[in-house]
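Problem: given the chain below (113 residues), write out its structure.
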Amino acid sequence: MIVEAAGSFIDRSHPTEGSAQVLGDGSGQRFLRLEDFRTDNGPDLNVYLSAAPPDAAARDFDDDFVDLGDLKGNVGSQNYEIPVGLDLDHYSTVAIWCVRFGVVFGAAELITG
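Solution.
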């Protein structure tokens, strides 16, 4: 697997730490990997790829996003499948989004290179 993009989480409404990496296998299939991840536990937490920058207002995160699914755990490394063909230049922020309360627990900007 090749690291196509990576970034570190920043706190938003809750303490959040760890890194996010986009891993590709060369065939077009990509995964989002959260490494050494930790945030507070909360209701209805999802992993979004968002067009909003990591420090944007919370309301901007659910304007233009791709939902990768429920957060698998609030502690530990985990993987999420990224839809084939998704433009990561556009959706360049990983956000831990609380659907119930409309807040961002933490976010990471994905930087290619």
